[in-house]
Write a structure and sequence with these properties.
heterodimer; A: 251 residues; alpha/beta; 9 helices; B: 339 residues; mainly alpha; 15 helices; 72% helix; globular; transport (chain A); BCA_ABC_TP_C (chain A); ATP binding (chain A); nucleotide-binding (chain A)
Chain lengths: 251, 339
């Protein structure tokens, strides 16, 4: 298929005798909204690490826009359009909000080795920064140091960094983690505003966010795919209820 | 307060965004330093030799600031680059050409090349291991310089080379007037370069690497290559400082490679403030002049006073004296604005 962005075939990872990822297959199309759920220890984080390149798979392959990236370094994958956010905010604490986002813009424009021409005088950079600050409503705190920022706002900067990379595939690792309950609704709204042609994988425990956002859900259990389907199929699936939803609460 | 409000705000003036960058702006401390340097040229003729030493140390401290302050490369072996630059310039003057500006370039290139090669090793690790590695490399080079007498003159040092007049016109005089102006010009050049560098996209990337190198990698930036570039640049600038030293003193001794010098430069940065360029100026001036005066007062116990100064500086101005001066400046300016 032509509009497949990310394709994972037979992905397998074991640490010694312990298989943490077993024969995982799935594909993402342009504009996909894919959720990855499963109980703790199901192998979600391992799968993300395999896709982003933090771990090398024991077997299987990962293709990004038809290109086999299974052996590529994490940073090469990023520059090919595979971006992620982190469960625990990973930012540049001694720099301002605008500087943080600018680093991602610089990386995306491939001007990170430009030794001259002040960064804050580059028109294209400033225009892009203005756009991103607007999207995330961060204009008011542009000159704040990250270390002075509230947790929820750091979460926004984290997202802004990922989007500044203009990725083709975006992996959101528990975007609602640590957010106060009343903010998760606003997060959902923000997720809905993500670019339509961007393929998104979201890993999340908050089922309200998952079912409100995803058009397709993969349920992992013990390292393998338990089932895949649309939100309504997953909701109706007895197996899923048993391993996952049943543990928490009934919807 | 709503943390995640998504209503887009319109018409942010771009000027505001540009001003949200903590780029290096010329502050009161810069103005004071340059005014002092020019004042010293006209009115403190007797201190030009000391002034030249101050300037050389400022250049060395600037180079270290690019590595430690801006990029988080923890080097306690920057004297190696200084020494290599000095020996290279001296050997060049002795064997090839006595023209000083070419000598500077040769010193810088030699040190930069050595920085590139050792950087391949040093930049693979971080933190304490990195510090120890830079010290170890320093120790090895010092040992080689001491032993390889036919080239370096060993413990006797390298002397007896001539340095031609600068641009064929300004010859070095006994009182160090030319040397002072010469090194001041080089400092101005190096400072301008460093300032362009730290305000460039590359400069911000370095600060990003210093803050969180893993994240920088996950933005797709080849961190190792960027660090190697700044380490080589930093080494080259240290080499230029060494080359000036060799040219104006007419002697290169092994102590230009010593651990003591590496440590002293670090102390200068601690006193002046890291990651802000002007720290090198303030720290260099305070350190060299204070050492000189303390040694004149008590030639045996002056290190005691230096230690005391360092403790006071770290206790009362942990960010260095530079930010303190700029705050004072800001305070004075604010007062003037509000009648």
């Amino acid at each position: 298929m032509n509009d497949t962005v990310l394709e994972i075939v037979g992905l397998h990872k074991s640490f010694g005798a312990l298989a943490v990822t077993r024969n995982i297959n799935f594909r993402l199309e342009i504009g996909a909204r894919h959720a990855l759920i499963g109980p703790n220890g199901a192998g979600k984080t391992t799968l993300v690490n395999l896709i982003t390149g933090a771990l090398a798979p024991s077997s299987g392959s990962i293709r990004l826009e038809g290109r086999d990236i299974t052996r590529y370094s994490p940073q090469r994958r990023v520059s090919l359009g595979l971006a992620r956010t982190f469960q625990i905010n990973s930012l540049f604490p001694s720099m301002t909000v605008v500087e943080n986002i600018a680093l991602a813009v610089v990386a995306n424009m491939h001007i990170d080795a430009k030794l001259w021409g002040a960064l804050n005088r580059r028109k294209q950079v400033l225009i892009e920064l203005e756009r991103l600050l607007d999207v995330f409503n961060l204009s008011g705190s542009a000159c704040q140091l990250i270390s002075n920022l509230a947790y929820g706002q750091r979460r926004l900067v984290e997202l802004a960094l990922a989007l500044a990379l203009k990725p083709k595939v975006l992996i959101l690792d528990e975007p609602a983690a640590g957010l106060p309950k009343e903010d998760s609704g606003k997060l959902s709204e923000l997720l809905r505003r993500l670019p339509a042609d961007l393929a998104v994988i979201v890993i999340e425990h908050d089922m309200q966010i998952v079912f409100g956002f995803a058009d397709r859900i993969t349920v992992l259990a013990e390292g393998s795919v338990l089932t895949q389907g649309t939100p309504s199929e997953i909701r109706a699936d007895a197996k899923v209820r048993e391993v996952y939803l049943g543990q928490a609460r009934n919807d | 307060m709503a943390v995640l409000k998504v209503t887009p705000s319109k018409d942010t003036p771009k000027r505001d965004i540009a001003a949200s960058f903590g780029s290096h702006r010329l502050g009161l401390s810069d103005a004071l330093v340059w005014a002092l340097a020019i004042f010293a040229y006209f009115f403190l003729g007797a201190y030009h030799q000391l002034g030249t030493q101050v300037i050389i140390m400022i250049i060395l401290a600037l180079s270290l600031d690019l590595a430690i302050g801006y990029s988080g490369i923890e080097s306690l072996g920057h004297a190696v680059f200084f020494g290599i630059g000095a020996y290279a310039a001296a050997l060049f003057a002795l064997n090839v050409l006595s023209e000083p500006l070419t000598g500077l370039v040769v010193g810088g290139l030699a040190a930069g090349a050595f920085g590139f090669v050792t950087g391949l090793l040093v930049l693979r690790v971080r933190g304490l291991t990195q510090v120890i590695l830079t010290i170890a490399i320093g120790a090895v080079v010092l040992q080689v310089a001491t032993t390889w007498k036919s080239v370096t003159g060993g413990d006797d040092g390298l002397a007896g080379y001539q340095v031609a007049p600068i641009l064929g016109r300004y010859s070095f005089d006994l009182y160090g007037h030319t040397a002072y102006l010469y090194s001041l010009c080089v400092l101005a050049f190096v400072f301008a370069l460093a300032r362009i560098l730290v305000n460039s996209p590359f400069g911000y990337v370095l600060r990003g690497i210093r803050d969180n190198d893993q994240r920088m990698r996950m933005l797709g930036v080849p961190v190792a290559a960027r660090l190697l570039l700044i380490y080589s640049i930093s080494a080259a600038i240290a080499g230029v400082a060494g080359a000036i030293s060799a040219q104006v003193t007419g002697l290169v001794a092994t102590d230009s490679l010593s651990f003591l010098l590496s440590g002293n430069v670090l102390i200068m940065l601690l006193i002046g403030g890291m990651g802000r360029l002007t720290g090198a100026f303030i720290g260099g001036i305070i350190f060299v002049i204070f050492s000189d005066r303390a040694a004149a007062i008590d030639p045996f116990n002056w290190l005691f006073m230096l230690g005391g100064l360092l403790i006071l500086a770290v206790r009362f101005t942990p960010q260095g004296v530079g930010p303190w001066i700029d705050r004072m400046g800001g305070y004075l300016l604010d007062r003037r604005r509000k009648p």
